[in-house]
Amino acid sequence: MADPCVVGLDVGGSQSRAVLATAGGRTLGTGRAGGGNPTVLGAEAAVANIVAALKGALGEVPGERVEACVVGLAGVSTLMADPKAPHVLERAWADAGLVCRVRIVSDVTVSFAAGTPSPDGALLVSGTGAVAARMHDRLPARFRDGYGWLLGDEGSGFWIGRQAARAAIAAADGRRPMAALATAVLARLVDQDSVYREPAHQDPADQDSESIMTPDLPAGTTPDRSAGPDPRSRANATHPANPTDPINPTDPTDATTHATPTAAHPSARVRPAATGTLPLAASIGEGFTLRGRRRAAELVRAVAAQPAALASLAPLVMSAYELGDPAAVRIVAEAAEALVESLAGVAPAPGEPVVLGGSVLASRSPVFRAVAAAVGRRWPDSPVGLAADGAAGAAWLAARQLLGGERAAAGHAVFIGENHEFAEFS
Fold first, then answer.
1. I want to staple 242 with a disulfide (CB 3.0 to 4.6 A). Which of 46, 224, 248, 295 is the partner?
2. Quick one: average pLDDT of 32-42?
3. Please, are residues 45 and 259 in contact by the beta-carbon 8 Å criterion?
4. Biased composition, Low complexity: where in the chain (predicted)?
5. pLDDT tens profile 191-247
6. pLDDT band at 14; cut points 50, 70, 90
7. What does the buried/exposed string (b/e) look like for 60-90 if buried means 16 or more CB atoms within 10 Å of the residue's CB?
8. CA–CA distance, 185 with 313 (Å, rounded to integer)
9. Do 307 and 195 belong together in one domain?
10. For 124-162, how does the pLDDT look when each residue is reduced to its tens digit (9 = 90+)?
């Protein structure tokens, strides 16, 4: 008789990921699709992407074989408040061939489950957004931050990118030295075709360079912000969820999403991916001869036209940090401090685990190292788990419904596999 199958999904604003596994934890298939946050996309479009990821994971396996399914969803409260949601979801599960009950929970819940089998503890997520949660019986009981890109999400990939852009502006207009990070940010977001160059210094490799953005807005116009309240949601719509997240948007709520931002909306004409590799500062620096004020203005226009591009700067900060760039070192320290402060508001009881997730942390970035060290100092009795795969955490929760608590706990490491690391930091 074939082993019973379970499915887990981790659905954020930039990506949806599904895992099909046996109840014992053996992975049978995976699927990916675009973001499924209904707050951003609306119920119909969000569910369509969720089903696409689900079908990708099922492959040729009949949906009838799936005996339990858990979906961790950013924006779950928005979906449940939509009166059309029950009908849309019922139709979606039937379309995928599922006949089992589908349990929908917060993406915070599956992130925590990806890092520990414990029912209680604390979760800190930094991806495109950032949030901390006190977990009780695997459900969030209290939150800190997660207030979005404009007023909150301190220490997130978006926040880190915004600090990088500010540092680049300060360097461009002469308030700070033009070092590795500022050079990389200007190269990433400023349209080089619009920058004045001395012919003697023009790099032939730049003659056919791609235009990265539209540098000038028509007189009397303002940037188009009609797409919605949270510009981060358009970042990385097609990039895999992780450096993972690059910091890849995962994301998170998109705030929790294990998400790393890399691809911007096509209409923004920004370069589609930030690899974290810095250009040679000397060669680019010689090419720019425009006065600093104009270079700073070009950067401001780029960000105003597509704020989502800010999140894609986070990998550049991490690379510049490794080179000892003073601005990057400061940004990393401030991000880690903000994240630890959020975690302090939901601190675990002695001995309870702390789970770190989201693309900024799961990618083992400099921010992760600083946060992990601080957690070890402030909560020395708490083991630290790294949640790199929320979909696997969701699949484990689905298996738990079939196996019961003790058997599921024993098999947790099998579900999480190499993505799971449980360690003490000091």
1. 248
2. 82
3. no
4. 240-266
5. 553 333 333 333 333 333 222 222 233 334 343 433 344 444 433 333 333 333 333
6. confident
7. ebebebbbbbbbbbbbbebbeebeebeebbe
8. 7
9. yes
10. 999 888 999 999 999 999 999 988 888 999 999 999 999
- Give the whole-angstrom CA distance, residue 151 versus residue 218: 29
Identity of the residue numbered 87? H
CB atoms within 10 A of CB 267: 12
Give the range of the structural domain holding residue 288, as residue numbers without chain letter.
157-239+266-316
| Phi, psi for 326 (deg, rounded to 5) | -60, -40
Which tokens go with 149?
Answer: 């890109």
Q: pLDDT of 265-304, one tens digit each? A: 333 333 434 445 555 443 344 344 456 778 888 888 888 8
Nearest to 71 by CA among 41, 47, 106, 119: 106
Ramachandran category for residue 97: left, alpha or beta (phi over 0 → left; psi -120 to 50 → alpha): left
196, 305: one domain: yes
- Structure tokens that stand for 233 in this block: 């949601």
Dihedral angle sign, alpha carbons of residues 298, 301, 305, 310: positive
CA–CA distance, 72 with 387 (Å, rounded to integer): 14
Q: How far is CA 139 from the centre of its chain?
A: 21
Q: What is the pTM of this model?
A: 0.71
